[in-house]
Design a protein that fits this description.
With about 300 residues, the protein is an alpha/beta fold. The chain has 11 helices and 8 strands.
Amino acid sequence: MGVLDGKVVLVTGGGNGIGKECALLAAANGAKVVVNDLGAGLSDAGTDAGDAGLAEQVAREIREAGGEAVSNSDSVTDMAAVEGMVEQAKDEFGGLHGIINPAGILRDGMFHKMSEADWKAVIDVHLHGSFNVTRAAVEHFREQEDGSFVLFTSTSGLIGNIGQANYAAAKMGIAGLSRIVAMEGARKNVRSNIIAPFAWTRMIASIPVKDEEGAKRVERMRTGMRADQVAQLAVTLCADGAKHVNGQIFSVRGNEVVLFSQPRPVKSVSRMEGWTPESLIEHGFSAMESGFTDLGATTSVFPYPPV
């Protein structure tokens, strides 16, 4: 018996890393799985490049272990293709109850040097891709009054990392998308939650190491923060036992699961006669300054080794 017995789950980016671990764990917990992976490299967005057999390899591994799985090698950037994934789940397994969507690419670079092509490619895969998988399935989920979206954000957006403006913008957009999907779907038992993962994956391995401290940080991630640890939460969020969990932002860092706050007012200033630029500079900003968020990157918020 598993927490996903009787469920059908679509996992995008399921050929490697977090996606692969999610697909394997979902199957081990009783789900019938559609494993999607374009098979492209980290910098390929919506192309035919790559190994379309990666998804089938994972699906075969599931079947050899006694589970049920089929593969799909289409791109999440193509709405018609994503609609096809949903129909494939229905045709092959008779339904769909959850989507786990870690599919992604990186095209890092300082913002003042970033090309429009690199901006659009990352937005297309992460943000547009997240729209596609949620929009393609949401009506089905609403009709059956059951469905869970597990989307992926990043501390690059929630906190910030230099050199990832495109990635951060996409990942913060996903936070907004997930929040609204959760709010609008709550009455129909349609849930949407997001995970900011810490895990050693191809995406993390592709980030350049520029100094000794960076090398130590990467090594901690490689040895102490694994994709299978992220999969535990992602799969759980698709289970009936987690139906009360909706609209939340989580992070997984080794054996630690973190619940993130969401933007709410922290301070306010009022002036009965109204504000002017001069009074804001002289009084307003100084009154709020103690509540300003600093410009520290993710490592300043999580400076300690993974649990």
